[in-house]
Design brief:
Six copies of one chain form a homohexamer. The first copy, chain A, is α/β, with parallel strands linked by helices. Chain A has helices at 19-28, 51-61, 77-83, 96-112, 132-140; strands at residues 7-12, 34-40, 68-73, 88-93, 117-122. The radius of gyration of chain A is 15 Å and the shape is globular. Chain D binds chain F through residues 44, 74-76, 78-79, 96-97, 100-101, 103-105, 107-108, 111-112, and chain F through 95-97, 129, 131, 134, 138, 140-144, 147.
Chain lengths: 153, 153, 153, 153, 153, 153
């Protein structure tokens, strides 16, 4: 009997995709057969960084890694997971605030789709202070953000 | 001498009122003589679910429970408590994030009205992941929300 | 039909009973018809302060308050609650560490006895830093502890 | 090229092994090719439950699941992982206290063995209040513990 | 050789400046030679209280304390610190939510400017429940806010 | 008028003194005129590492830094601070568990000695996972601990 592929969705708004996100994806590669970086697009919410540009940057970042795919989705994460035949969600945890939030969200996702298991990695400590919202804030105020991004913008 | 009635306000925006809220009210009934579900209406903030409709759903939900009243209020919770002769606030705690928030709010309410005591219940674990904001998010993206609500919408 | 009395157990090792404990009992009196300060005695664990002495101090402290009783118990809190016909446990919350612990314990108590509801108060902020273990530590090292105790020792 | 087997160590003192532990192992089975329940034995620390008995109970519990092995180890988790060719540690997270502890431990394990990745699952909410120390406490005081264990003791 | 002055920036939006903020500044005075209360002005974000008025209130509050200066800035905190030759940031911690946030921000500030050290004080417990956002909320709903402010508004 | 020296006590059991502790001392040097590493010795509690040896290691570590002194004390931290004319306590914060503990302790120290201010630094992220108890655990089980210590043992 063929063993089922382990496909994980790594969902987020990635506005922008940071070195912290890259850390989680690269470490997740030893667990999963395929990781889909799934950029959630919320039409009613204005993004700060250009969506097609971010998608393209992530694709180039992982161009030598055929196990990583990049996709844009609207709607529920669990619906998109089913559509992509992903049986896992991959998430990083940086601190207790993240934990409380992810604890809640993972229960909802399991309630909607009982076959969808969320797997957590703890973000590497030297990257745990990076968040997309801080990067946006820095950029808005003219700060240097290249230190936090795994590509040039 | 007549014993003073124990009247509790259960304040919130209830946008919408969830099974988690229902859990706190039903468990609170063994402590209080009356519980007023107090729907805070903030005129400057757009609600997602229709206010009169939610009020009506809560009233029908507790129609066999004469100790539960439902009311809409604007302004400060502590002011409305005084107006309703409520000497207690009833609140549910789901996690440490809730705790830190409620810790702050309860001190403010006591500062304003020293006779107003806040009583906490810990939300039952199988309901602790439900939040109004997650329910709104699910609904916005076409997800099923009936699992989280104690009434049909 | 007679209304059932609201009897709460306020369990703890109270080694010693502090001003923080007193704060929770006094504020609990407006909710409950009777509060039993239940001193847990664990025969396999050495106490620092003398048990009969602490019991006597608590009794004197509340001698003008007939709604407060003091008792010593061994074994499970939920068993002693049943024996005393207490339908409530009363507990104070000082911080998130307390919350995580009480969250766990209250579920266990409810699992054992589904009719036993735990009611929480948040300790008043000017008393929230007091813990029995700190008082013991201070006493051990010759520090003044009278500031933290509602009686002379 | 042969794909490397995904072998995870699920380390703990398991004094005793609870339904919460079972939940993590069963959910981990869809990720890993083999899970070794690794019972840490600390010769200088007295166990409450009999070690060979607990080992045998876990083996019987998973007797129809050939992917689960049970082993006893002394010394460092990371050393035992290397010895068993396990490239993963599997851990459950119940709350923020767990998170803070595991955050620390996982960094130490990675420092010792950079190839050892720790994978986290969040314990199912209806089991998250169970801890081995609470089960021991209940047993010590004559309480029923069968509700928390996936086997008879 | 002349010893370098210890100049600290105390940054915030101070919308409004509360007794909690005053507590941190006054206690910080025994550490620093100069404290600059730095009011962050974000042109794209509407303030609730009038900026020049708040600045003037803080100046009057500390008019007898020559070590305290008040300034308005736009852009990054670390840039303004450099401009003012401040080698320290001073921040108050009220609870774990504050801690998680400040933990993140202080790493970013150190990444941008390795010579900028953030020094923390824990807010005095009787003031720890005060936050600018609660004060705004109270004011919006017609509540009394003078209790929380070290000046009349 | 002579400016009062800024003398800080950095208290702990330092069993052993780690790179995390060194980080806090070195960063504290830019704030204080003198830092006394104060090794608390609790005669009723067995140490794992030899006390005179640890003291000597810390002295050698800071031998080129005349502002750092090392001392052993018994009894209360606040009493020893007074004896050494230290007006500050210096403490590192690694995570929310540390924060909750230090929050409590710093209030007690201020209650005992209102002139004793506790100043906090957040431990650098790449060192925040190091704790004396983990180092002891590693050593007990034959692990390498030199990575975590700023000296050879």
């Amino acid at each position: 009997m063929a063993v089922k592929s382990k496909i994980a969705l790594f969902p987020g708004s990635f506005d922008p995709f940071t070195k912290g996100h890259e850390d989680v994806v690269r470490r997740g590669l030893i667990i999963f057969d395929e990781i889909i970086v799934a950029i959630g697009n919320n039409s009613s919410k204005q993004r700060y960084f250009d969506l097609p540009n971010i998608k393209s940057k992530i694709e180039i970042l992982f161009q030598d890694e055929p196990k990583v795919k990049v996709a844009i989705f609207e709607g529920l994460t669990s619906t998109f997971a089913k559509q992509k035949q992903a049986n896992f969600l991959l998430r990083g945890l940086r601190n207790t605030t993240d934990f409380e939030y992810e604890n809640t969200i993972s229960q909802v996702n399991k309630e909607i789709n009982p076959d969808l298991e969320t797997i957590f990695l703890i973000t590497s400590p030297h990257l745990a202070f990076i968040s997309s919202s801080i990067v946006r804030d820095l950029h808005k105020h003219g700060g240097t953000i290249s230190t936090y991004l795994p590509y040039k913008i």
